[in-house]
Amino acid sequence: MASPSTSNLPRWLGAVLWGNSVALSWMWGLGLFFSVQFTTQFGVFGLLTFAIPNFLGLLSFGLVTHHLARRQPGSESLAQFFASWSRPFRLVFFLYQVLAITLTIFAFLRYVWQPLGLEPWLLYLPLTLLVVLAAAILFGEEFDIKRIKFSHGVLFLIMAPALAFLIIFAAMKGTGPLSFPKLPTNDWNYWGYAIPIIIGFLVGPWLDLQQWQRAIQMHRERVSIAAGYWVGSILFFLLLMFHGLMTVWALNWGAAEFIRVGITGHNYGQEILMKLFSQAGPWTFAAYGIFVSVCVLTTLDSGYIALKWFFKSNASQSNHPIFSLVPTRLLTSPIPVFLLCGVVALVGAVLKFELEFFMIFYATFFVGYSMLAIVRCYLVSRANAIPQIKMFCIGSLAVVIFSYGYFLRSPLFQIVGSLLPLGYVLWLLVKPSSSEEFLSDKQELDAQAPDSAPSAGAVMSPPVDAGGALQGGPLDLAALTHNVSGHFEGKWFVHSFVATYADTNSVGNVYFGMYAMWVGKTRELFFNRVMPKFNLKNTPFYILTRSFEHKFVRETREFETVSVKIRVASYNRKFATLEHEIFDSTGHVLGRGKQTLLFVSSSDYKMLDIPPDVYSAFIAHA
């Protein structure tokens, strides 16, 4: 059955549908249940402390990505920006998404199923987990990113009557005779929670694959990202307020008796609404169950689709040899990740963990990466590489400091744990040696890989220092032998020749297109060396060029001796990547780059896996 056409939708309707999907996908386990917990601690003031930064963080993400998408023309501008911008953060994106999925599954088991007290729990708990996983995978497979706004629209229409029923039920019952005790909001204990919440949720969406995928798809469909996120942020805020105010109402009707002491000695009340409504009657229980289930399902199916998109993107762009050994469907399937998340959530529920144990990472570890990601949107020259090890260490240290503060009830430690990653990112950007932490484009171009340095005695490519100057004096060309068909220096295949008048332009410099011609000739000689029996007349496959890149560093002139070096840099099941470097007779780098090869059938031009003959010929030089 064909999906509804997005091109025929009015833009305002597209913005509403996408805004609804944004709100539901962000209503995950953390927002859904911590709104209850923080309200039980600090009342309506605490609820606003939690909801407003959430609202502002989601909205600011939409407004900034709207601006980023409009910096370049075309419907793919944001997708192209994300592809280059996100490269240093790929592992962090993955960890963020995995933790969000784990947290949501855990929260459902811990605060929806376990409060029901079904026995034997050892049987019911794994079965409930399987139902949650199966539903998430089913919806994730059935609805891709183009159709998810429609499925979420239908789910919201199912949820809306349940919300209305609960509101009417609470209104008919009244505000309640009790006034539950609240913690003060003018002491350090409050700020020990409030500051991490404000920091974590203001920058939270920037590492969420679900939100990036939605923003990119909105731009592709020519729906205003800003409008979609205004709708989504407002709806999300209203859902948070609904859940929090229902908590206030429930506490005034005696739900405070369901607040319990956890394994850390803190008071927890995330499940008080579930317990109260399960005793209020089947219709009330069903209405609340629908609300919670829709929020959880729309988060998990969004996570499934986002991970699938993320895996496919990385599998198609990466040339790591592992991709040639593992089946593509397994590499791009989120199912193994969901199973892992389910197991971790199940163990956490059995051990009586709490939501806050997972939340700590969003208030500490991911904060530094999120801030650096935001800075990188506008300071690309400094942030096209990040000090991964240092960032990981600071993030881990922040987690430990915050954890000690939480378990020992020390608000100062909690505040320090949240501010530490922010301070470190600021220090990275302004410290005198920041240029050593972040590579500029020129530094990245001039830097030589250790295994690409010319070997001692190599033809036309002696060792050079960091600035490209020759070490050890001029090269004695007469003392060196030269094979006109090229030769190997370790993994590198080298072809040397003399540039002539035919290679130059009108002013005497070598014409820019000749560098690519030289690389192409060297590649042919390399193929001839490693595959001497290749015959174009009876070959079952052709080798085609998928992409070619070259960065020009210096110019050269006629009668200059030039060496082109080429090697197999990496490969996967479908593609092989060759990299090249060009040197002059003094050892200066003229340029470097890479090219990607693909393989097609000589009979019908269908794409093939790397042929065995090519694999066996290339593998010795990879």
In brief, what are we looking at here?
This protein is α+β, with helices and mostly antiparallel strands. It has three domains: 339 residues, Amino acid/polyamine transporter I, CATH 1.20.1740; 76 residues; 174 residues, Hotdog Thioesterase (Thiol Ester Dehydrase, Chain A, Roll), CATH 3.10.129.
Please provide a written account of the structure.
This protein is α+β, with helices and mostly antiparallel strands and 622 residues long. The protein contains 21 helices and nine strands. The chain has three domains: 15-353, Up-down Bundle (Amino acid/polyamine transporter I), CATH 1.20.1740; 364-439; 446-619, Roll (Thiol Ester Dehydrase, Chain A). 58% of the residues lie in helices and 10% in strands. The strands form two sheets. Strands 3, 4, 5, 6, 7, 8 and 9 form a seven-stranded antiparallel beta sheet that branches. Strands 1-2 form a two-stranded antiparallel ribbon. Helix 2 packs across helix 7, helix 5 (121-142) crosses helix 11 and helix 7 (188-203) crosses helix 17 (411-430). The longest helix is centred in the N-terminal third of the chain and has 42 residues, at 29-70. 41% of the residues are buried.
